[in-house]
Amino acid sequence: MQSPHRPRRFAPLDPMQRMEGDERPVLKGIVFDVDGTLCEPQNYMFAEMRSTLNITKATDILDHVYSLPPTSQETAMEKIRNIERNAMKNQKPQTGLVELMEYLDSRNIKKGICTRNFDTPVAHLLTTFLPDSHFHPIITREFRPPKPDPAGILHIAKSWMHEDGGKSLIMVGDSLDDMTAGFKAGAATVLLVNNANEHLAKHQHTDLVVKRLDELIEVLEQGFEGRVESEVEETDTRALVREAVGRND
Fold this sequence. Notes:
This protein is α/β, with parallel strands linked by helices. It folds into two domains: about 25-40 and about 90-249, 3-Layer(aba) Sandwich (Rossmann fold); about 45-90, 434 Repressor (Amino-terminal Domain) (Orthogonal Bundle). The protein has nine helices and eight strands. Strands 4-3-2-5-6-7 form a six-stranded parallel beta sheet, with helices on one face. It has a two-stranded antiparallel ribbon with strand order 1-8. Strand 5 (about 170-175), helix 7 (about 175-185) and strand 6 form a beta-alpha-beta unit. The longest helix is centred in the N-terminal third of the chain and has 19 residues, at about 70-90.
C-alpha cells in the first residue's frame, strides 16, 4: 500500500517555537553539495572539462568517463582532476557559510557532503574555511552511482542509522542533480539560487529557495515547510537504502 504523499516539513529546532501536539518530525541531518553550495560557483570548470575530453555540453562528464575503456578512464579522470586542482586555489566561501555551520553545530544537527567532485578540492575547502566543523560521511565521485541518483544521500542516511531513508534529511545544493537526488531519496530540498540556476526555483524537485546559506537559520528555527510532495514511498525508500549500501560496501 502506498504511503501518503506529503510536502516535506520539520518541527522548529528552537524548542520555544514548538507547540504542544506538533507532529512534524524533527530534522536529523543536512547533506550539502560543494561547488556552488559551500563555495561560490566555478562553472567555468565544466566547459574546460568538456573541452579537454572533446565532448559537448549535452554529454554528462562522468557518464562519458565511465563509458570509456578501463585503460582510458584513469587518463580522462586525471585530466578532470587537474582542472579541479587549479580551480580549488580560487575557492571562495558562500555568504553565510560559517554562520550556518556554527548554528547547526549548536543544534547538534549532523552534516554530510554528497558531491561529484573528487576528495582533494573538498578537503581544501573544509580545512580552509571550516576547520572546526565536522562533516561525515563525505561522499565524493568515488562513490557510484553519482548524483542525480539518490544512492549517495541514502548511504549517508543509512550511516546515520536512519531507516526511513532521506525522509529525516534536507539536501542543500545548486543544481538539478542535487534537487533530483534529494527528491528521489525522499529528502527535503533547498536550492541555493544564483543567476545561472534561477530556472530551478519552480522545479518540481525544489522545496525551498534561499539566496544565501544563513537564511536557513531562521527557517530551521521556526520550522521547515516544503512545497513539493515526495515520490518515494516508505517501502520503496527502504529498498533503495539496502540497494545503495549493498553497491558500495
